[in-house]
């Protein structure tokens, strides 16, 4: 997948310049040699930059600054140019077919290109810093009476490596907002980091400050297993052990295919946390049998699982979990006219879903690998449980 992204980036850089240069040659437009160098220089520099990033051992560098600046410049300069070139070419084809001389598609290309520039600037400055507290009420037929009105704060996909520089204040605001809900319990459903446990060092005091009456529970996500790195297996295993140890040092209860019980008066609910249950075999680490060992069949179960695709694939058919909480999709991070790319890979990509009285809530998370949000605001979900009457 990474190789395909790099190929698309290279094509978006090179093809528009080749197209416009060939058009000038056909019209016999003469250019001085230094003007040709100036014309080709930005594209060649970006091409060299893309090749340099392609040789990075990790999908996300330890310091993502260079990657973020590359994507920002690529989005502001080269994507609009590629869009304009595409519409110009399509307009020329249309003009030939209709024997017309006016290429109106150029104006469409200019408009869409300008929209992309505005959207990119907004999404990487204002959009990525916005936060909403989303209140959700879930009515469950077998919720124990003592847990009527039980308040859960659910968040996921922190990707704390994104919160560097001025963005660190944004993470502090998110943590403060979580604590301000005075929840009974806090659930975190995976992807605490991008690639390295060292991302936690500047923000570990913030994460330690999370507090709730019944504690903080967490599970691991695909990024927490160093999915996008090419490190020595021994180093990857050491990083995973460090990440597990750090979460426990924060005071969190990290569930690795295991469960815990929360009591209220004579009632109790069971919190089950499974490791990442991805579609690919390398990321299918969940062990449902181990996680549910000792759980009574009539127990009220809340399942924590990073990947929402596991809900229909393994949770509904193989467990009694009445409520599942997931993340992973980020809600696509981009929504235009209600269209989210995350829906292509996951039918249940964001929001509350129900199947035969059993529910799943998928949060769009508070962070992301890339610092960008457009139409999908980072969220903290406050879920209140009610008895269904």
Blueprint of the fold:
Layout (H helix, E strand, L loop, with lengths): L1 H25 L6 H22 L10 H34 L6 H21 L5 E10 L9 E6 L12 H12 L5 E5 L14 H5 L7 E4 L13 H17 L3 E2 L3 E7 L2 E7 L14 H4 L9 E4 L5 H9 L4 E4 L8 E2 L2 E2 L1 H4 L5 E5 L2 E5 L15 E10 L2
Parallel strand pairs: 1-14, 2-3, 3-4, 4-5, 7-8, 8-9, 9-13
Antiparallel strand pairs: 2-14, 6-7, 10-11, 12-13
Helix pairs in contact: 1-2, 1-3, 2-3, 3-4
How would you explain this protein's 3D organization?
- By secondary structure, the protein is of the alpha/beta class.
- Helices cover 39% and strands 19% of the residues.
- It has helices spanning 2-26, 33-54, 65-98, 105-125, 168-179, 204-208, 233-249, 288-291, 310-318, 342-345; strands at residues 131-140, 150-155, 185-189, 216-219, 253-254, 258-264, 267-273, 301-304, 323-326, 335-336, 339-340, 351-355, 358-362, 378-387.
- A 6-stranded mixed beta sheet has the order 1-14-2-3-4-5, with helices on one face. The chain has a 6-stranded mixed beta sheet with strand order 6-7-8-9-13-12, covered by helices on one side.
- Helix 9 (310-318) links the parallel strand 8 and strand 9.
- Helix 1 (2-26) crosses helix 3 (65-98) and helix 3 (65-98) packs antiparallel against helix 4 (105-125).
- The radius of gyration is 24 Å and the shape is elongated.
- The model has no long low-confidence stretch (mean pLDDT 91).
């Amino acid at each position: 997948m990474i190789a395909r992204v790099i190929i698309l980036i290279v094509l978006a850089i090179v093809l528009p310049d080749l197209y416009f240069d060939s058009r000038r040659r056909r019209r016999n437009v003469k250019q001085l040699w230094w003007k040709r160098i100036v014309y080709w220089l930005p594209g060649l520099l970006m091409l060299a930059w893309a090749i340099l990033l392609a040789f990075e051992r990790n999908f996300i560098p330890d310091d993502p600054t260079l990657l973020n600046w590359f994507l920002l410049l690529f989005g502001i300069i080269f994507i609009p140019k590629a869009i304009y070139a595409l519409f110009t070419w399509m307009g020329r084809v249309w003009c030939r077919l209709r024997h017309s001389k006016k290429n109106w598609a150029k104006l469409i290309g200019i408009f869409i290109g300008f929209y992309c520039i505005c959207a990119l600037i907004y999404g990487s400055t204002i959009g990525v810093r916005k936060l909403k507290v989303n209140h959700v009420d879930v009515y469950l037929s077998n919720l124990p009476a003592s847990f009527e009105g039980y308040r859960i704060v659910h968040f996921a996909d922190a990707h704390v490596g994104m919160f560097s520089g001025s963005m660190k204040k944004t993470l502090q605001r998110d943590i403060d907002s979580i604590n301000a809900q005075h929840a009974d319990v806090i659930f975190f459903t995976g992807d605490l980091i991008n690639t390295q446990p060292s991302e936690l060092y500047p923000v570990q005091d913030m994460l330690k400050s999370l507090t709730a009456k019944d504690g903080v529970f967490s599970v691991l996500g695909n990024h927490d297993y160093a999915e996008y790195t090419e490190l020595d297996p021994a180093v990857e295993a050491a990083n995973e052990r460090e990440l597990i140890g750090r979460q426990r040092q924060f005071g969190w209860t990290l569930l690795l295919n295991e469960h815990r019980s929360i009591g209220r008066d004579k009632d109790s609910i069971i919190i089950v946390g499974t490791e990442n249950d991805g579609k690919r075999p390398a990321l299918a680490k969940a062990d449902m049998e181990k996680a549910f060992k000792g759980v009574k069949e009539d127990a009220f179960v809340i399942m924590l699982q990073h990947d929402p695709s596991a809900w229909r694939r393994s949770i509904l058919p193989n467990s009694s979990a009445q409520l599942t909480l997931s993340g992973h999709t980020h809600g696509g991070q981009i929504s235009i006219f209600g269209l989210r790319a995350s829906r292509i890979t996951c039918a249940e990509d964001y929001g509350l879903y129900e199947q035969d009285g059993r529910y799943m809530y998928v949060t769009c998370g508070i962070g992301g690998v890339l610092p960008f949000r457009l139409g999908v605001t980072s969220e903290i979900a406050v879920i209140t449980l009610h008895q269904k009457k």
